[in-house]
Structure to design on (214 residues):
């Protein structure tokens, strides 16, 4: 996963310089913000000199999923306030996907913390190199911003492989996306997330009812 973050960071660094920002913005974004998909959006917001209120609202809407991550992220295994603080800051989609898998149930707090730190370093290093080399990449090169989507696709496929008996979940996600696309195309992301959450809650209630009757 760390190696996968290197080309993604390179793509982000190049995107920063091609947006008219100095190369060091790539290092600053990845080291201090470290929010994955929001960082790609932040490049456009900074380049357009968007108001702070717009930036804050966008950050809230994009990263609100992290509130739900904390429900199952194994932060209790990480010892020390400083370590817990950094682990909370470094809670990304990739870190969550790895630390909540079946094979990670026996991981210690030190392993979780070092995993997050190395992923952060890979991300900052890749973005910095991409920012420095961004001027060498022709403006005609397109598709760099798709690198994040590609990584999320890989994470989703890995999650499906780990939970082969839970295939209805991706089916619910697909149906939610299609319904949102048809009903509210202008607010597709928000509508799809709401529908998907409602579907998961409904399935949970139905499953719990069946378990009690059994």
């Amino acid at each position: 996963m760390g190696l996968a973050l290197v080309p993604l960071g390179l793509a982000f660094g190049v995107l920063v310089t091609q947006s008219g920002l100095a190369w060091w913005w790539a290092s600053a974004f990845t080291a201090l913000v470290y929010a994955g998909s929001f960082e790609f959006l932040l490049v456009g917001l900074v380049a357009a000199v968007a108001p702070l209120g717009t930036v804050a609202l966008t950050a809230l809407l994009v990263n609100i999923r992290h509130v739900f991550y904390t429900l199952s992220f194994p932060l209790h295994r990480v010892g020390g306030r400083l370590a817990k603080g950094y682990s909370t800051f470094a809670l990304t989609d990739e870190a969550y996907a790895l630390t909540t898998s079946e094979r990670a149930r026996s991981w210690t707090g030190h392993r979780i913390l070092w995993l997050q730190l190395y992923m952060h370093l890979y991300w900052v290093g890749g973005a910095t190199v991409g920012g420095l080399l961004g001027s060498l990449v022709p403006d005609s090169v397109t598709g760099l911003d798709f690198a994040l989507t590609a990584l999320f696709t890989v994470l989703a496929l890995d999650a499906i492989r780990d939970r082969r008996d839970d295939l209805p979940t991706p089916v619910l996600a697909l149906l939610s996306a299609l319904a949102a696309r048809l009903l509210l195309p202008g607010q597709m992301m928000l509508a799809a997330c709401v529908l998907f959450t409602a579907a998961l809650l409904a399935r949970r209630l139905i499953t719990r009812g069946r378990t009690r009757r059994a």
Remarks:
- The longest helix spans residues 188-213.
- The radius of gyration is 19 Å.
- The CA atoms of residues 34 and 115 lie 15 Å apart.
- DSSP finds eleven helices and no strands in the chain.
